[in-house]
Amino acid sequence: MRSLPAAAGGRRRQLVPVLVGLLTGLILAAVGAAFGGWLGWRGGGPLPSDADAVARVQRLVPQATVVKVDRWDHVFAYEEPGDGAGRVLVALVGNDDYNAGYVQVLLAGGDDAGTVAQMRHRLATEGWRVGASPWDDGVTARNGTLSITSYPATESGSPLLRSTGSGRIAVEVGRDEPARVWPFTLGGWVVGFVLGGALGVFTVRRLARMPRIAGTVVGIVGGGGLAALLPGTVLTTVDLVHSYAGLPDTVTPPAIWGAYMFFGIKALSLLGALAILVTTVLAAFMRYDVQKLR
Q: For FRET with 123, which of 28, 32, 140, 254 sits at 20 to 30 Å CA-CA?
């Protein structure tokens, strides 16, 4: 009868590395996808000049009046990174204004619905892929190099969910997602999952061979690191599914790595990555005399 508990304990010892490997693989898969997406966006093309953006928009809706033009040239960056100590804080903790670059042309005059309908027709005529918009009374389009998103706006250019009849329409000209971003993102996910799974199994097996106290301490550090990375993993996975399955294909997806840049999530992710690194180094290179320490 004593062999049954022993067999159950053996199965648990075999199952633990698999479960930890699966968890570590999923967490590092999200990190890998984020890194792959970041690599894919490197070298993203330039935005059009203000004059070029205005000319494009006026060609689409020549009857509208241009009120103002705003631009943000970065591929993706914090729009308000802060100065001095504030910049250091944002670098370590993150912020919620991590956005893609754009040139925004704010228009006034005319009927909102008519302006959008005309814009949709002109874009399709010029060969853009035109589709639905996350905003009511808006339109989105991509042409392989640039993206266009229009939406009802306030006097300052902030988006509105639906038209108010004010005649204010904002048109954002941004970068279309480079074709390599999706393969890089998928490849990063696969590589992260495989490496993360192998790392989890390796670490658990190494911890089982350590002295009990040392193994427990190192295991707690590693478990804390996985827990700290979990929020970023969940958000990144949700963003990944939403970007390529939930958004209209005429909308340029947001940065896949953007979740790791959010306020608080960035700090947790940095601490989690450090804890995983420390755990891996200790598990791989720690030397001890089992006979003396047990």
A: 254
Structure tokens at 78: 């914090």
CA dihedral 102, 245, 60, 126 (to 10 degrees): 120
Integer CA distances (angstroms), 223 to 122, 260, 276, in order? 55, 19, 8
The dihedral over CA atoms of 35, 40, 42, 44, expressed in degrees to the nearest 10, equals -140
Place of tokens 């648990």: 12
Q: Is residue 257 a contact partner of residue 34, using CB atoms and an 8 Å limit?
A: yes
* Predicted pLDDT of residue 5: 54
Q: Determine the pLDDT at residue 213.
A: 87
- Those residues with Cβ within 8 angstroms of residue 44's Cβ, 6 or more apart along the chain or in another chain: 75, 175, 178
- Note the pLDDT tens digit of each residue in 250-275: 888 899 999 999 999 999 999 999 99
Is the predicted pLDDT of residue 164 greater than 80, yes or no? no
Residue 112 is predicted with a pLDDT of: 62
67 within 8 A of 111, measured Cβ to Cβ: no
